[in-house]
Design a protein that fits this description.
The protein has 3 domains: about 10-115, Ribonuclease H-like superfamily/Ribonuclease H (Nucleotidyltransferase, domain 5); about 125-220; about 260-345, no CATH class. It has 13 helices and 7 strands. The chain has helices at about 40-50, 70-75, 95-100, 100-115, 125-160, 175-185, 190-220, 225-230, 240-250, 260-265, 290-305, 310-315, 325-345; strands spanning about 10-15, 20-30, 30-40, 55-65, 80-85, 270-275, 280-285. The longest helix has about 35 residues, at about 125-160. The chain is globular and about 80 Å long. InterPro entries: Transp_IS110-like_N, Transpos_IS110, Transposase_20. One of its GO terms (biological process) is DNA transposition. Pfam families: DEDD_Tnp_IS110 (PF01548), Transposase_20 (PF02371).
Length: about 350
């Protein structure tokens, strides 16, 4: 019996990834060949494909999520073209939106991969991805510290302990204020234990943040990073943390073929709804990078106070619109300047008109 080969035949594979197993669908020539479960192993899927469809050309897709990019890298090492897609960008029928199951998800991915309707997201190299993880760790540490501070304040409010006025709204807690907190005595051992434990959590979070920042500054000394950071912090409103956030989230500025592409990634474009021949603008886009957009907007508030050109533009804008809308326009202009200095490895020049 002659062995069957599939030379030059294209097979499209959609994977719905999970911790304990993968749901896999294989398509060829417009037909669904098989949907099955498999251990979460690129090697096992590769072995299955080469055994059942030898000498075929394989294309694989899965959605970005908890498993990260390691399967994509492994498939590429095995010589298989694998892309990762944003779940929100996968076309879905009305039924698929209502009935969401693992087999349906893998079928949908395989189908749309074969149709050519999927757009791969950017996959960073492992070192840049881990640097991004460090930056996001700092973000979470800041969030945890803020929660702990709020818990401490609410505990004191709950027992009628008045916080000194200068510390009520100030987000930065001085050593003096922490010393004052440690001097607070509650009526019971249970209450005192609660306060002391929260203060210990605060001290630990402050130390964790200190160490994370120290490591980030060490990483920023790398030659390929330091030149970018140096250019970025020359832009008004951009300090070290914002510059590192920009670098770790974007990594390669040249992957955006236009400014509009970059603005869309950050989330500084309007949400547009089309009906017939009419387009409706519904405010700023819901889709955005949750780390970058708030930072760019915050930087814009600083920039309008320090950059003459942006100050002038902001004053003109608020004559015709609300301040919150005006600052989004400024943020977009600031992003354009960020892109310019990054691409050209240049320093920002104040009063440069966009």
């Amino acid at each position: 019996m002659n062995n069957i080969t599939f030379t030059d035949s294209h097979f499209f594979v959609g994977i719905d990834t999970h911790l304990k197993n993968w749901r896999v669908t294989i398509r060829n020539s417009g037909l669904e060949l098989k949907t099955f479960s498999l251990n979460p192993s690129p090697e096992e899927l590769y072995k299955y494909l080469t055994m059942h469809y030898p000498e075929g050309i394989y294309f694989i897709v899965y959605e970005a999520g908890f498993c990260g990019f390691w399967p994509q890298r492994k498939f590429n090492e095995l010589g298989i073209n694998c892309i990762v897609v944003n779940p929100a960008d996968v076309p879905s029928s009305g039924k698929e939106k209502v009935v969401k199951t693992d087999p349906n998800d893998s079928r949908k991915l395989a189908r749309e991969l074969e149709n050519g309707s999927l757009k791969a997201i950017y996959v960073p190299d492992i070192n840049h991805e881990q640097l991004r993880s460090l930056m996001r760790l700092r973000f979470r540490l800041v969030q945890n510290q803020t929660r702990t501070k709020n818990r401490i304040k609410m505990l004191l409010y709950n027992y009628g302990i008045i916080i000194p006025k200068e510390h009520i709204t100030n987000s930065r807690w001085s050593g003096y204020f922490i010393h004052w907190l440690k001097s607070v005595k509650l009526n019971s051992t249970a209450g005192q234990f609660t306060l002391d434990n929260l203060l210990l959590q605060l001290e630990q979070s402050r130390e964790n943040l200190k160490q994370a920042l120290k490591q980030l500054r060490e990483e920023a000394k790398q030659e390929n990073i330091s030149s970018v950071i140096s250019s970025l912090i020359s832009v008004p409103g951009i300090a070290f943390i914002t510059a590192m956030s920009l670098y770790t989230e974007i990594i390669d500025i040249n992957r955006f073929n236009s400014f509009d592409h970059l603005a869309s990634f950050v989330g500084l474009v309007p949400s547009v709804y089309s009906s017939g021949e009419t387009d409706y603008t519904r405010g700023i886009s819901f889709h955005h990078n949750k780390f970058l957009r708030p930072l760019i907007v915050e930087a814009a508030w600083t920039a309008v106070k320090t950059d003459p050109a942006l100050t002038f533009k902001y004053k003109e804008l608020i004559k015709t619109m609300a301040k919150q809308k005006a600052i989004i326009r400024i943020a977009k202009k600031l992003l354009r300047r960020i892109r310019h200095v990054w691409i050209n490895q240049d320093k920002y020049v104040k009063a440069l008109v966009a």
